[in-house]
Structure to design on (219 residues):
């Protein structure tokens, strides 16, 4: 369960503490980068130390909506990557209309981190291979089920053990629920689509992507 600001990160940790099956990430999304002052960063550091926190995220750059100034987004991204290094946690990275800028910052920390995922991956196959070369994996969600999506080409082409499956609930629901509220249970449609694209069984996709997920988040 992913945090996107201080409040949602606190809720994510609280859910994880109450439910054995839930694990948490904590982070400040680039939309909210302006909130990451000293007080907020101290609180984020406290949350990162909680037992069931498995990653720092969702962090990164978003130059599509520009809800926070780009220089502020970059500062917040750097600070949270440094936090991940300090706590030896992987990262969950968001990038939209800012791929090369995001990749450059990620590359600065790649060798110091235990890994990470480029979540809701927006790029093409070549860009995915750049991410994988740095030691990160690709997050494949509901967009893979949409007609002619770039993500479907990525999911068909990259090594199966370099992707994990996700939902981004409540957003980006897969077909046949596109346009509705997304739910974690709908990840099975993502799994089925990846299997179809690669000509293998859903069970094989589940086995390999789950193994990658366990390795990434050290479960």
């Amino acid at each position: 369960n992913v945090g996107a600001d201080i409040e949602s990160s606190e809720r994510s940790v609280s859910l994880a503490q109450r439910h054995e099956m839930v694990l948490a990430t904590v982070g400040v999304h680039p939309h909210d980068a302006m909130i990451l002052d000293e007080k907020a960063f101290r609180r984020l550091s406290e949350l990162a130390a909680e037992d069931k926190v498995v990653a720092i995220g969702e962090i990164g750059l978003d130059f599509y909506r520009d809800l926070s100034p780009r220089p502020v987004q970059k500062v917040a991204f750097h600070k949270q990557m440094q936090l991940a290094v300090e706590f030896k946690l992987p990262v969950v990275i968001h990038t939209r209309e800012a791929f090369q800028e995001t990749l450059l910052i990620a590359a600065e920390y790649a060798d110091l981190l235990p890994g990470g995922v480029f979540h809701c991956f927006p790029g093409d196959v070549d860009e995915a291979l750049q991410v994988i070369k740095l030691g990160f994996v690709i997050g494949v969600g509901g967009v893979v089920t949409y007609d002619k999506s770039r993500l479907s080409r990525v999911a068909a082409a990259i090594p199966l053990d370099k992707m994990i499956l996700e939902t981004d609930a409540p957003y980006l629901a897969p077909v046949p629920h596109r346009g509705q509220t997304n739910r974690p249970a709908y990840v099975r449609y993502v799994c089925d689509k990846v299997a179809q694209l690669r000509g293998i069984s859903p069970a094989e996709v589940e086995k390999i992507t789950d193994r990658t997920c366990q390795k990434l988040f050290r479960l």
The chain has a mean pLDDT of 97. The two ends are 14 Å apart (CA to CA). The chain is about 45% helix and 15% strand. The beta strands are 24-26, 53-62, 91-96, 116-118, 137-140, 163-165.
